Every structure is written in structure tokens, then in C-alpha cells.
């Protein structure tokens, strides 16, 4: 029986593990992949305090060292569900059941798919969701980046170091990305924009992507845009399936908490990008991890108080 089981080793979960273990709690951190979460798919991070700029995988390793420094144990596992037994909780993975007095859900998000023909069949053969993983395969090639948010525009800039041309295809005529990121993209000679446009189909030969069918949403006209690859950044979806049956998510699947990261179930906390909130950043994930790590300590202290008469 652990004092706390943290699900997900992104920046939120790793910070919660650091805070809880430093308070002398026994902590199990369960992760289905490499520690770091979405930071592993990020090239340069330049808005994390203390660093002018740092590569996502490097910050991931630094946070992991911190998370496990005070004794938190890390195990591989894909969590299927969390079961509430009031005074203790069960965390069920594909082959094990762990018990904890409390649980912190830090499962974050996953990239949303476009849902067009060719997206699945050309995944890994020209369709990618991770510039830092796949960008180097596209030296001197033409790329399309789909989306107009921070991810699309920032990763488009990153891709210009490899590609001959990066065309941002956005469904509106104004970007959603932060102004500082937009300005950098507008000033980059290798970046072009196709406004008011959506991808209807991704095309290619048996081996690789050769182009995409694009529709102008204002005129209704379609054309084939030749390209060697597409990087898709059209937003995020919460990874909250393991807690869906607990009734702590909203209709879209985002987990609801109060400002102390408590869900409506005592002893179950949620932090990071999987929460319903407005700013999904490493700094906010880390801040929430700190709050939850401390709140778990409070919760377990309160559980120790035996009610009078017992
Ligand atoms: P995540 O980072 O999503 O981590 C969640 C972890 O939980 C993952 O490791 C996942 O494998 C694990 N997990 C999920 N489900 C399960 C399960 N069932 N069982 C076990 N493990 C599970 N933010 C910035 O501040 N600056 C930036 O420059 C920046 N750039 C970005 C660039 C891109 C391309 C993207 C996609 C995001 C970027 N962000 C940036 C946002 C930032 O990465 C996220 O806000 C942050 O990583 C959220 O942290 P998290 O711990 O909540 O979730
Ligand atoms: P996002 O902010 O939700 O943006 C998604 C973009 O994709 C929007 O421009 C949206 O268009 C477009 N889109 C959505 N569905 C589409 C579809 N079906 N077809 C075509 N286009 C579609 O997602 P994100 O850029 O991945 O960012 C996610 C979070 O991470 C944000 O909170 C962001 O701030 C954060 N982040 C931060 C940084 C940073 O701080 N440097 C970097 C990356 C990400 P509309 O604009 O028309 O809605």
C-alpha cells in the first residue's frame, strides 16, 4: 500500500512525486512511456524559468532525476482504471493492481487527429505529430504544417532548419498562437501560409506522402498541394479514460478539480494538462504538481485523525 500513486510522468506528475516523496510519503509513479510526457516531443522550450532555452528531452531528464531523488519509485505500466474504495484506491494496469491511500492523476493529453483519409495509412510515412522526432527525415523537402496554435507555429519554425519550405495551412485567416511566436514565423523566409484552408485528404504512392487535397473554406475550391510530409497540430484531447467511470470528468473528458487539485472524490487529485483549465503549459503543470503533492500530505494527515468514539 503506497501513500500515493501518481499516474503519468509528465512535468505535473514528476513534480507531484518530488513534493510527496520529499514529505516522506511512499510514492509510486506509473508511466506508460518515457518520463517527460509532451516535453519529449518539444524541441526548444524558452518559457521555462531558469533556462534561456532548453531542449524538451533534456528538461524531461532533469525533472525525472528530481522526481526520484527522494525515494519515489517509478514503474512502467499502462493504467486502465482507478477504483475508489473510500479509504484506499486501486490502480489497475494491464497486468497488475496497485493499492494506494491516495491517487494523483497526471495523464495529460494526446494530440488530436485530423480524421481525414490517408492520415492513418501514411502515419510514419510522411504524416507526423512530432517535429522533434521526425523533422530530420525531411531535409530539403517541402512540408505542410496543419493548425494555427502555439504548437503548429512553433514547430513549423523548428522544421525550417531541415525543410526547404514549410507551409502552414490554417482554417482561418488569423493565427491562435502567441504573438511572439507569430512574429517569428512571419519573419521566417522559409514559412508560407495558406489561410482559410483545410486538408480533405492526404495522398501518396505506396511508400510516401506526395501531396494533400486542400479546400478553401471561403470559396469551396479544392486543389492538390504537393508536399513530402505533413505535421499535424490541431489541438489536444485529454487522456482521462482510466477515471471516466468515477464521474470526475466533464462531457469532453477534461478532469474537474478545485484550486487545490482535489476532485470530488476524497483522496483522488488531478493535475496538469488533463484538467479543465485555460493555460496548458509546463509551468502550470509543475505548479499544480507542487500543490497536489502538498495536498496529499494534508489529506493523509487528516485520515490519521481517529474520530471520537471509535
Ligand atoms: P503530459 O506532458 O501530457 O504528460 C502526461 C504523461 O502521462 C505522459 O508521459 C503519458 O505517457 C502518461 N500517461 C497518460 N496516460 C497514461 C496511462 N493510462 N497510464 C500511464 N501513463 C499515462 N509548454 C510550455 O510551457 N512551453 C513550450 O515551449 C511548450 N511547447 C510545446 C510543444 C508541443 C509540440 C506540445 C504538444 C506541447 C508544448 N507545451 C509547451 C505544452 C506542455 O508540454 C504541456 O503543457 C505539459 O507537458 C503538460 O504536462 P502534464 O504533465 O500535465 O502532461
Ligand atoms: P490549440 O491551441 O488548441 O490549437 C489548435 C489549432 O488547430 C487551432 O489553431 C485550431 O484552429 C486548429 N484546429 C483544430 N481543429 C482543427 C481541424 N479539425 N482542422 C484544422 N485545424 C484545426 O492546440 P496546440 O497548439 O497544440 O496547443 C495546446 C496547448 O499547449 C495550448 O494551451 C498551448 O498554449 C500550449 N503550448 C504552448 C507552447 C508554448 O508556450 N511555447 C507551445 C505549444 C503548445 P482555430 O484557431 O480556428 O481554433
Walkthrough of the structure:
This protein has 310 residues and is of the alpha/beta class. The chain has two domains: 4-111 and 236-303, FAD/NAD(P)-binding domain (3-Layer(bba) Sandwich), CATH 3.50.50.60; 127-232, FAD/NAD(P)-binding domain, CATH 3.50.50.60. The protein is 23% helix and 29% strand. The chain has six helices and 19 strands. The protein has helices at residues 11-22, 56-68, 131-134, 150-159, 179-186, 282-304; strands at 2-7, 27-31, 44-45, 54-55, 73-76, 79-84, 89-93, 97-105, 109-111, 127-128, 142-146, 165-169, 191-194, 197-204, 209-216, 222-226, 229-232, 236-238, 268-270. The strands form five sheets. Strands 1, 2, 5, 6, 7, 8 and 19 form a seven-stranded mixed sheet that branches. Strand 15 (209-216) and strand 16 (222-226) form a beta hairpin. The chain is elongated, with a radius of gyration of 22 Å. The protein binds flavin-adenine dinucleotide (FAD) and NADP nicotinamide-adenine-dinucleotide phosphate (NAP). Residues 7-13, 30-33, 37-39, 41-42, 45, 47, 78-79, 106-109, 151, 155, 239, 242, 272-273, 280-283, 285 line the site of flavin-adenine dinucleotide (FAD).
Amino acid at each position: 500500500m503506497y501513500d500515493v500513486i501518481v499516474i503519468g510522468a509528465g512535468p505535473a506528475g514528476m513534480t507531484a512525486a518530488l513534493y510527496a516523496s520529499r514529505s516522506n510519503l511512499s510514492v509510486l509513479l506509473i508511466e506508460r512511456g518515457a518520463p517527460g510526457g509532451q516535453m519529449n516531443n518539444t524541441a526548444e522550450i524558452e518559457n521555462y524559468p531558469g533556462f534561456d532555452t532548453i531542449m524538451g528531452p533534456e528538461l524531461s531528464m532533469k525533472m525525472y532525476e528530481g522526481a526520484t531523488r527522494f525515494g519515489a519509485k517509478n514503474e512502467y505500466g499502462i493504467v486502465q482504471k482507478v477504483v475508489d474504495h473510500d479509504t484506499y484506491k486501486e490502480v489497475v494496469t494491464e497486468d497488475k493492481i496497485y493499492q494506494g491511500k491516495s491517487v494523483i492523476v497526471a495523464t495529460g493529453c494526446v494530440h488530436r487527429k485530423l480524421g481525414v483519409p490517408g492520415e492513418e495509412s501514411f502515419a510514419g510515412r510522411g504524416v507526423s505529430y512530432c517535429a522533434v522526432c521526425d523533422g530530420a527525415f525531411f531535409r530539403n523537402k517541402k512540408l505542410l504544417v496543419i493548425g494555427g496554435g502555439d504548437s503548429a507555429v512553433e514547430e513549423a519554425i523548428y522544421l525550417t532548419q531541415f525543410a526547404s519550405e514549410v507551409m502552414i495551412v490554417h482554417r482561418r485567416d488569423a493565427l491562435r498562437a502567441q504573438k511572439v511566436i507569430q512574429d517569428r514565423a512571419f519573419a521566417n523566409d522559409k514559412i508560407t501560409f495558406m489561410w482559410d484552408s483545410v486538408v480533405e485528404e492526404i495522398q501518396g504512392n505506396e511508400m510516401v506522402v506526395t501531396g494533400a487535397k486542400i479546400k478553401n473554406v471561403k470559396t469551396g475550391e479544392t486543389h492538390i498541394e504537393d508536399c513530402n510530409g505533413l505535421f499535424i497540430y490541431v489541438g489536444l484531447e485529454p487522456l482521462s479514460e482510466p477515471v471516466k467511470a468515477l464521474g470526475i470528468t466533464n462531457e469532453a473528458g477534461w478532469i474537474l478539480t478545485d484550486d487545490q487539485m482535489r476532485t470530488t472524490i476524497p483522496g483522488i487529485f488531478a493535475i496538469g494538462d488533463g484538467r479543465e483549465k485555460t493555460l496548458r503549459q509546463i509551468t502550470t503543470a509543475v505548479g499544480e504538481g507542487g500543490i497536489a503533492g502538498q495536498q496529499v500530505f494534508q489529506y493523509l494527515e487528516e485520515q490519521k485523525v481517529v474520530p471520537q468514539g471509535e
